[in-house]
Amino acid sequence: PAPRLASLLILTGGINQYVVQDVVSPKQLASHLNRSCLGFLQQLSVLTSVFHTYRFQGSIEKPGTRVVKEDTLELLIQVVSGLAVSLPSFLQSTSVLAANRKEQLNAVKMSVFLLCKLTETLESCVCHLQGGKKGKAGEGLLQWDSERESVLQALVQLLQLDIRSLWSLSLVEEEFVSCVTCCCYKLLENPTISHVKSKPTRDGIIHLLGVLIKKYNHLLGASVKVIQLLQHFEQLSSVFAQAVSVWSTEYGVRAIIGEVIREIGQKSSEELAREGSGVKSFASFLSELSGLVPELMIPNISVLITHLEGESHNMRVAVCEVLGEILVRVLCGDGLDESGKADRDRFFDTLQEHLHDTHSHVRARVLQVYTRIVNSKALPLCRYSEVMELAVGRLMDKSVNVVKSAIQLLAAFIAHNPYSCKLSSADLKKPLEKETAKLKMMKERQEGEKPVAVIKASELWAAMEPELLVTVRAELEPTSETEKQQQEGVETGMVEEKEAEDDRATAVQIAQLLRVNKYSQNLPPTPQKEKEAEKEGEDSELKKQEMLVQYLRDTETFALLVERAISIINTMLYLKTTSVVLEAVQFCVTVCEFSVADSLSGVRKMLPLVWSADAAIKDAVVQAYRRLYLNPQGDTTRVKAQTLVDSLSELMVDASLGTIQCLEEIVSYIFFITLTKPAFTSFLFQKCLLLVHQRMCAFNRTEREVVLSNLDTLCSVALGEKVTEDFLLARDTVITICSITDHVRVRTCYKAGFVTALPDGSRVLTFFIISTYGLLFVLASGVVMEDPHWQSFMEQAVRLLYFLAESPDQLCSRLLQRSARLLSDQIAEGGEVNKDAGQLQGGSQDSDEPMVNCVCLAQLLALCGCVAFWQVSHLERSVSTELRRRRGEKEEREEKEKGPSNKTKSAVEEELGLIGASAEDTEAELIRKICETELLAEENLLSAFLPLLVKVCSSPGRYSHPQLTTAACLALSQYMMISPSVCEDHIRLLFTVLERSTLPVVRANAIIALGDLTVRFPNILEPWTQNLYARLSDEVPSVRQTAVTVLTQLVLKDVLKVKGQVSEVAVLLIDPQPHITSLALNFFNELATKDNAIYNLLPDIISRLSDPDRGMSAEDFNTIMKQLFSYITKERQTESLVEKLCQRFRTAKTERQWCDLAVSLSLLSMCERGLKRLQECWECYSDKLTEPGVYQPLLSITAKLRRGAKPQLKAQVDEFEKRLTAVHTRGLENVESPEMEEESQKGGESSEKTVLHTPLPTRGRNRSKRVITFSSDEEEDEEGGCSRLIHSPLYSQHNLLSKEIYVFCL
């Protein structure tokens, strides 16, 4: 027999054992090595010497060893290949001598043994070098990869022959098979065997082992070895999956799958739970094997299902994936038999159970399996609603991966559903009710019909038998003597003939007589067949109706689940987890592409994400809109441009200002990579879709040229004779002109006389000079027109006047005069009379004084406020800039006029900052003086409208028209921004309007106006801060929303100091309106980014919210505190808050306050230092522990601390818990503290009942209360004022907080 190890060859052996008697020295190996295959048996000593001499891995790097081993390997490959060529003829020979057979057998054994052992040695050397340094394997054996393939190929060729006849009784020795298999398994241990470059080697090993399994009885050994290698080499899972698949299909050894799966199935849960058990390899192996041969897994699936109850989640995942592959590729379709359907239903039930698995990884993978099943259309229709409902439930899972997988599954359901998802559940409700009623009527009608009597065949025969017998006898018997004689003669002559007739002839005769007889005509007609046909038709119609009703029910159920899923996923668009947001965006795109009902809600809701700081989210939203709306289809460029413009036009229908800004950002982001840019621009101007184009023109100089080249077209279409018909188009035209105009540079150059040097500016200014008076005429005429869009156009037009006009104050003065004159003329001419007595101007209903249209008066007041605002802005920006320019020119001239002697003094003053500072102060003082004394002087037209504004605002009962009151309130706030004196004079009136106005729109806009005034005059508004916070508890949701938005901007911009009033914002965390709740949550999220802000405010917030006068429920208090305490993450802050909250037990007066403080303590992320501080403050709360509301929260702290605590900490927790329980059960007066015991032992006092008094808090040092001031993380927007309204069409776009409020609302 062949030895198992090469080292055994040099030992003395017994009978019939290979022995090497002479070991050649290393120096003589090269000369003794002969490459001749004919003398191979004589070369055994030389070949064995190679193993004996170079059996150490390090020897491969010695000089000359590589050549010797390469030569030896090449010789052995030639020998084995030669045997594979020569043996077939030898094996086919019938007359073979025993000696020849033995010689060939020895040659096979020796060659295979030496080749396998040398291969193992070389493989070990290469793996050793690969593990040491990368790239060193090639230095040891450059061509090992190709030689390894040659070795495997030679062995396969040899072993594929029927060499078993060389052995006695055709029994191949186990040692021989083991020699080859050990070599194969050694090669499989290479770490790179699973790489792509090792595919030829991998395939060779698989086929070699396949031959051994099929022909050499290696089945059991292979199954055991597969399990062992999987347990130690995780990278072999895919290799063995491919191997087992090949062995079972190409080599027909299907039993190998059963053996391997049985070995895995017999692994216990405890064994798989141990480290190094190879559970990951087993799981990966099963998953990949099921993907290759799923039909062969079914007979052995019962062995694997036992692992579903085990502790290893990896095995549960693998089994679920196996079930999924079987359901997708085997148990699918309508051609299954009853057994297949039963297996399919059982497998689906198993998967559904594990949608609620305890491990999140299992739940996620089962959802992914279902996604593949749905995409493959392998899910039975009867399970759609059930599985989809489970998927919707998984959207609320705590695991991010489970939520993502659930969203993907729902998207697959929508993409492959058999129902009509374009209809909503509301649309399906009426058809379902109609068809259900029809089905009910059909069933009632069928039940009401009398049953038809069914006559059995036996009864029918019994009724007709007597008459039938009479008729037969009458026909067969002779009726006359002649017939009798003829019959007798015939009978006599034909006796033999009659005897020869058989019964069949008689039967035929009878049948003929029956057909001729009139009996059949005399039978009564039976309607049974007709009734049965009618009944079959009715049954068929009933079944069709039942199927229709069932389909409508399933469709309605599916629509309800889709709507529920959409509503949940839409809320996920603003989660903090990026991956979930990306999946939600993709889901919204999917439902929109399939035209699902209510799909646009998610598409519109994800629009604000274009401002996200996360680049991945922003890019996903942009690509989503590009895929849905900005991906034009068409054969020509113009058709593509038209399609693109039409899509944008659809988005603009009923779009809010925020939606428009988001769309502008998206379009500007992808506009310059659009293939149809020139045609798009041209077509856009033809459609006058300036609403989108205005933003794009601000990004590229070339697009500005396009606008300027089409400026005449814009003006003629939008600002021409028909401007009063479409103020929105006129407004957008003015915005576009403003966006392409650098007004400061153009105006400066215009005043300096350099207009010709700026072609852009000159073109705009030329247009402006020509159309200024037309614009003024349109503005003045619009005052007496009741157009809802005139005010937005007016605000942009006045802005353009102040941007480009040489003397905008004079132009606006003329505008106010003309507008007031037109309104007076309307009153004098008996214009439209306002019938509402509360809306009269200047008199009661019974007086003869003329009445004015309230809408027209509101528009005039809005114009006054807008002019006042832009006049202040003009002075503080343009005029101030011009003054600085002139001062700079003057200083330059003075520098030139001054000699070198004065340069030193000027340089010193300039270095100290005295020159610039004093000059700027002088200019600022000049501007303030102008605003204080001149803007509202008697000779200025603006002053004439101020008394009217005050009168309208101070008489809400008399002037109750919403638009008039709103316009007057905002105009008054804009007047108040002129100077501090005007603000102080009317601030009380504005707050009175805020508190007492019955119109929510007035209160909401008053909050915005007061926010702007707070930014401009913070010292004047500071005493009124409490009144602003009071609006957070307004009964109207829109007012609360506006209040929290404005206060958020003021606090985060450090305009308002953070004080205890923030507790009013905390109350909004439980507001019934979800949008307000999200705004409040966003406020605290932003506030938490400022150092220690929420930490410093928490004690005051707790005190205010637990105040008995507020009457807040315990549940609401817990909800608010849970959110606020989530921002406390630092251990030092937790420790300090424990002390502060414990000290507040002393000042708390009611049991409810004690309970709130205890709950607050339990919400902290307590640590060891926090427990220590809690024990130190024992005296603060120990006398309150008898209350369950105090004891239970503090007891929950010990439960949290005990989780994962060290033994020392756990002992402290147990001791503290015992102390809490003792005081709670027996009372503080009956429990003596350890400190008291020590004092009693030291002082020798008697053990009398001691009454404990809570001592006053003592501090080591006096700490002054710190004032919290926050640094602003953004610059204030200097563009705006107090004119933006968000709840009324009467709003301006230049509010100081407009951008911040809008972005925050998003």
Outline the structure in words:
Its main location: nucleus. InterPro entries: ARM-like (IPR011989), ARM-type_fold (IPR016024), CND1/NCAPD3 (IPR026971), Cnd1_C (IPR032682), Condensin_cplx_su1 (IPR007673), Condensin_cplx_su1_N (IPR024324). The C terminus is likely disordered. This protein is 67% helix and 0% strand. With 1306 residues, it is an all-alpha fold.
Q: Percent range for helical residues?
A: 55-70%
Largest sheet: none
Distance between the termini: 84 Å
Low-confidence stretches: 4-8, 32-42, 44-61, 133-142, 518-523, 688-702, 743-762, 831-847, 1233-1306
Tell me, rounded to a whole number, the average pLDDT.
75
**Approximately what portion of the residues adopt beta-strand conformation?**
under 5%
> Treating each run of at least 4 consecutive H or I residues as one helix, how many helices?
62
What's the total count of β strands?
Answer: 0
Class based on secondary structure composition and strand pairing: mainly alpha
Rough outline = extended
Cα-based radius of gyration, to the nearest Å:
49 Å
